[in-house]
Structure formats: C-alpha cells, structure tokens
C-alpha cells in the first residue's frame, strides 16, 4: 500500500496495461477482461486485475504526464512485482503519413522533460521500447492486417505547445511520428529496473492537418489498440 495505491501486494499481474485515462482502464477491464476486479481507486486512478485468454492481466491508469506515470510505474515495479508494461494511449499526429485512427508503436521516445537530466548529466539518453514487445506487437498487427506505424514519438510535458505543429518543427524535421506525454518516463523506468515496456498509441488528432477522430469512431478505434495490446499481453 502506498499513498497512491491501496492494492494488496499480490493484486497485480506481471503484465500491466497503462492508459492515462482512468475511464479507459475501467472500459478495458469491463469490456475485455474476465473476472475483472477493481484493485485500486486512490485518487480515482483506477486499477483492475482479471484474465484475458486465460492469462492474468492488469490495467492501471497512470494519469497524464511523466511525473504521474512514474509514480504508478515505480510502485508497480518495486512494490507489486510487475514485469511487462504496455502503455495504451492516445497521441497527436506529427507526420502526414500517420492518419487519424492509425496505431503508432513508439520505438523510441524523445522528450522535452527535465526528468532524466539529473540522471544522465551530459548524455542525451534515448528512451526506447523493449525489442521483444515491439517485434511481437508488430507481428500481431501484421497478422490482423492492421494499419500501424513504428517509429519515434515525443513525450511532451506541454499539451498546448506554442505554435501547434510548428512548435515541434525540429522533431517534424527528424521523422517523429506523434506526440503523447508519458512513454519516455515509462521506457526509462523499465530500462532502469530491467523490465519490458512498449507504448502503443492511437492517433486521435493530427496537429498538421487538424483532422480529429470523431466521437462515433473513438471507441472502435481505441478497441483496436486495446485488443492488440491484450493479445500481446497474452503472449508474455
Ligand atoms: O490518452 P492518454 O493515455 O491519457 O494519453 C494522451 O492523452 C493525454 C493528453 O490528452 C496525455 O496523457 C497523452 O499522453
Ligand atoms: O498528448 C497528446 C495526446 C493526444 N493528442 C495530442 O495532441 N497530444
């Protein structure tokens, strides 16, 4: 038990899906898991454990931004023994080849966050996904004939970036596909504690074209990301 999580020590599975949004955690648990039980509701940052295709799986909301995610993931690793982390997020498009509803596998996560500066000093550490998870996720997406992209993303500390897409110009110039707000901290923590992590995100709004997911399509779009991630969890 911690100030952020009142679940007992054995409450979580080794594999944990991590949406930012607590209601996405609830939706995944109630829609796709068998025997889902609420294990954490501190601050309404909901966490559930159940089974998927016979495999024990958890889903824990992280809130928005790297400091918030880092609290939940640090505790999941160090107090709850979690081993594999699959972020299931939304992201903004930064590249015209990524269309609304497309899934992005975050191979590496650049960031403007100061969180790693103290740790790495003069180095610019490159937070990256686990290769095993990445390869399995890409293979599963291919099997489903899903449209996905694998490449660099940016974990931004700022949602409302000055100038919109133009505010990301150096990243646009270096083939970054999308922006979200948590993957860099997740990848860094996973590397530090020898765990596996990947961010799988659905593009909901393109900062270049202004295209947005429409309300009707939102659920079904996130469903592709959720079931791909659960199928990945079932292989671990
Ligand atoms: O949909 P989630 O997982 O919350 O992810 C994205 O959405 C939030 C911003 O709206 C940030 O947390 C960003 O990373
Ligand atoms: O962080 C995010 C997530 C979705 N869309 C954005 O523009 N930014």
Structure description:
With 236 residues, the protein is α/β, with parallel strands linked by helices. It is built from 7 helices and 9 strands, in the order βαβββαββααβαβαβα. Strands 5-8-7-6-9 form a 5-stranded mixed barrel. Helix 5 (169-172) links the parallel strand 7 and strand 8. It is globular, with a radius of gyration of 17 Å. The site of uracil has 10 residues, from strand 5, strand 8 and strand 9. A purine D-ribonucleoside binds at residues 4, 180-182, 204-205.
Structural class: alpha/beta
Percent range of helical residues = 25-40%
SS elements, strand count: 9
Q: What count of helical segments does DSSP give?
A: 7
Chemical compounds bound to the protein: 1-O-phosphono-alpha-D-ribofuranose, uracil
For the report, how would you describe the main beta sheet?
Answer: 5 strands, mixed, barrel
* Overall pLDDT metric: 96
State the distance separating the first and last CA atoms: 26 Å
Order of helices and strands: EHEEEHEEHHEHEHEH
Low-confidence stretches: none
The amount of beta strand, in percent, is 25-35%
Q: Give the overall form.
A: globular
Radius of gyration: 17 Å
The largest sheet has its strands arranged as 5-8-7-6-9
Would you summarize the structure shown here?
The protein has helices at residues 22-32, 66-78, 117-120, 131-143, 169-172, 183-192, 215-234; strands at 15-18, 34-40, 47-52, 55-60, 84-93, 103-111, 148-155, 178-180, 196-206.
Topology:
Blueprint: E1 15-18, H1 22-32, E2 34-40, E3 47-52, E4 55-60, H2 66-78, E5 84-93, E6 103-111, H3 117-120, H4 131-143, E7 148-155, H5 169-172, E8 178-180, H6 183-192, E9 196-206, H7 215-234
Parallel strand pairs: 1-4, 1-5, 5-9, 6-7, 7-8
Antiparallel strand pairs: 2-3, 3-4, 5-8, 6-9
Helix pairs in contact: 2-6, 4-7
The protein binds 1-O-phosphono-alpha-D-ribofuranose and uracil.
Uracil is lined by residues 90-92, 159, 179-181, 204-205, 207.
Keywords: Glycosyltransferase, Transferase
InterPro entries: DeoD-type (IPR004402), Nucleoside_phosphorylase_d (IPR000845), Nucleoside_phosphorylase_sf (IPR035994)
Domain Nucleoside phosphorylase: 16-230
